[in-house]
Amino acid sequence: MNKKTILILTALSITLVGCVNVPKGLEKEQFTLKSLSSIQQSDYSCQCKSIRLGGKVLTAQALPNKTKIEVLSYPVYSISAKPMIDEEPNGRFITYLDGFVEPESLKDQFITIGGTLLKTEQGKVDQASYTYPVIQTNHYRVWKLSQSYYYPDDIWDDWGFFGRRPYYWYGEPEIRYYLY
Fold first, then answer.
1. 128-150, pLDDT tens digit by residue?
2. Nearest in space to 82 (alpha carbons), one of 22, 29, 138, 19
3. Domain spanning 21-143: CATH 3.90.1150.10
4. Which of 19, 113, 121, 172 is the most buried (most CB within 10 A)?
């Protein structure tokens, strides 16, 4: 390859990387804590630690001046701030949003929040006692879940050694989920 081609490919790749937009206020550089597992007991004392978490909204409750949300926490992508829905959940947390947000519009949605770690709250998950970290949210983003069907690559290879394969040879389409 000549230098001009390398320069064009480099510029194109930098341009495409720049297309990944992090929601405003959720940039990773401004948060000291980035997961539930990184929270220490001493972090609650100062109420000054900033944290970015994401997950699936389990319950939402409208209170007089704020909205309380219980979230099943998933790891968050460092660049896009989207929850990693293919990973295992790593706990739960409670967050408070200022003002009124319709609780029904939040249920079963995926959310990324950025805020301040405040305290812990005791609660129950079914019959078990659970200690929830509580976050006062400054910025948040609700993600939409979409699904697409696709066929694995080997499905399109429909000619075997003895000619075309019968219809029952083909597999089922698989589903992929995306957040946008």
1. 999 999 999 999 999 999 988 87
2. 22
3. no
4. 113
Residue with tokens 């696709």: 150
What is the C-alpha separation between 52 and 43, in angstroms, rounded? 14
Domain boundaries, the chain: 21-143, 148-179
- Stated as kind and residue range, the H or E segment containing 46 is helix 43-46
CB 112 within 8 A of CB 141: yes
Q: Are 125 and 62 in contact (CB under 8 A)?
A: no
What distance in Å separates the CA atoms of residue 58 and residue 174, rounded to the nearest whole number? 26
> Greater confidence, 89 or 153?
89
| Single-letter amino acid, residue 53 | L
Give the bridge partners for 56, in sequence order.
Answer: 72, 110
Tokens of 109: 């949605």
